[in-house]
Amino acid sequence: MEGQLSSGREIDPRESPRALFAYELRRYRQAAGLSQKRLGWLTGYSDSMVNLIELTKRRPTERFAELCDRALALDGIMVRLYAATTWRTAPEYFRPWLEVEEEATALHNWEPMLVPGLLQTQAYARAILATSPGTSGEELDERLTQRMRRQAILGREKPPMISVIVDEAVLHRSIGGAEVMREQVKYLIEIAQHPMVTIQVVPYETEAHCGLAGGFIVAERVGWPYAAYMEAQPHGRTVDEPQTIAALTARYDAIRAEALPFKQSVKLLERVVNQRDR
Hints:
alpha/beta; single chain; six-stranded mixed beta sheet; 2 domains; 434 Repressor (Amino-terminal Domain); Endonuclease, Chain A; elongated
C-alpha cells in the first residue's frame, strides 16, 4: 500500500494492553483502506509515528486515540483501548512504575520479605493483597487482576530479562497456608527455567548485609539503569534520580554477592518443596 512503512513483526494482541491497541489500530486502519501516511495526515501525526505505535514501539496518547476514533469512525473504541494501556485503575502511586516496567529491557529485583509480584501465583498474591486494611472484595479482585496482568510481560516475543534475589525467609513464611506456599515455591522452580528469568536466594547463614533495609527494583533499558521502585510504608515510590539509581544498583550487586549461585538456589527451592511434601 502506498504510504505504508515497514510493518515489522506480527503483533500478538494477547501480549499486553498496548499490543492490543496496536493490533486493533492496524486492523481498523486496514479495514478502512487507509495507509499509515493517510491516517497520519488525518490525525496530524507523521506516518512514522503511526508505524511506531502499530509496532508497540511508541506509547499512544489519549489525543491520538481520540483522533483515530474520529478518522476511522469508531465511536470511542480506540479511546477505550487506550484507557486499558494506562493502568488507570491501579493505585495512583504505582502507575508510574507500571509504565516503567512495560518499557524496561531488564528488571533487577531484591525482595527480603515476599515473593516479587511478577513471580507470584494467584493464590499467593490474593493472600498478600487481602491484608491491606479497608480493602473491599471488589477492590481485591481488581488489584489481583492487575497483578496477574503485569506478569504478561514474560509472555512477550521479547520479554525483559528478570533477575530476582530473595531472602531464604521468603520461602518459609507461610503466606496463605501450607498448600499456597507449596504451589508458590513450585512455581518459582518452574519459572526459573524461563530463559529470561534468574532466581537467586540469600541463605539464612548470611549475616548482616545492606539488603535488610528493604526491597527494591531497578529497571534497565538497553543496558542502562534509568528508574527504580523502592518499597516503603504505606506504599512505595518510583524514582529516576541518577544518584539514587546508582546507589541501588551498587546495593543490588552487593546483595547478589551474598546470594547462592543460580543452580544452588534452584536446588534450595527444590529442598523446600520436598520438606513441604513430607
